[in-house]
Amino acid sequence: MPAAAARAQRQAAYPAVVVRLIDELARLPGIGRRSAERLAFHLLKVPPEDALSLSSAIADARQKVRPCRVCSNLADIGPDAEHTLCAVCADARRDRATIMVVEQPRDLIALEQTGMFRGVYHVLMGRVSPLEGVGPADLTTAELLARIDDPGANLGTAVKEVVLALNPTLEGDGTALFLAAELARRGVKLTRLARGLPAGSQLEYANKAVLADAIEGRRPI
Fold first, then answer.
1. 183, 105, 109: which is closest to 147 by C-alpha?
2. Same structural domain, 28 and 101
C-alpha cells in the first residue's frame, strides 16, 4: 500500500479534531508527520492543565510579544504598544552608537550570553535569499538605515559603528555585501565578526568562547 494511502487510512480512524491537531503540529519547522502524531498523542495523554498551559503560553506569546520599535528584537508589549522597546534598547547603559546587525533574535541571544558586547543590536528577521524569494525589502534593512540616517530613530544617538554579525553562509555573506554597499555611502565605520566562526555554521550553535573571540577580533571590511 502506498505511504499516502496508508497515512490516509490511519488518520481516518482519528476524530476530526485530532486530525486537525496533527495537521497544525506538522506545519511546525522540523516536525514531520510521525513526530506530529506523537506530539498530538502526548498532549492528549497529559493532564488537561498541562496541555492548556501550553495553549495559554502560545496565546500569550502571540498577544503580548511585539517587535521592538527600534531594533526589531522580540519585546514584551508595554502600556503603549507603539513605543515598545526590548530589554537591550531600553537599557540606558548600552552604547547606542554601536549597532550589531544579526539575522534572528536567537542570534542576538547567543551573542548576549558572551557578555562581550555592550552596544545595541538590529535584527534583520532573515537574510537575503533570491532562491527563496527574499530580498532586502523583505527584511528590516530600511529601519536599520533609518537609524543611521536619523539619530532620532536610534533613541537620539548618532551611530558611529555598525558590526555585521551575520551567519557565515552564502546567504549571510550576500546580505553583508548588500549592507556594506549601503553603509559605505553613509560614511559610518563598518566592521564584521572575525572569521573565527566556521564557514557554513550557525551562530546559535557556536559556543561562548568562539563567539567571544569573534566579537573581540572584529575588523573593518
1. 183
2. no
pLDDT tens column, 104-141 = 999 999 999 999 999 999 999 999 999 899 999 999 99
Tell me the whole-structure pTM to 2 decimals.
Answer: 0.77
pLDDT tens-digit series, residues 23-54: 999 999 999 999 999 999 999 999 999 999 99
Q: Cα-flanking dihedrals φ and ψ of residue 84, to 5°?
A: -65, 130
Residue 66 lies in a domain: no
214 and 109 together in one domain: yes
Nearest to 21, CA basis, from 2, 54, 6, 43: 43
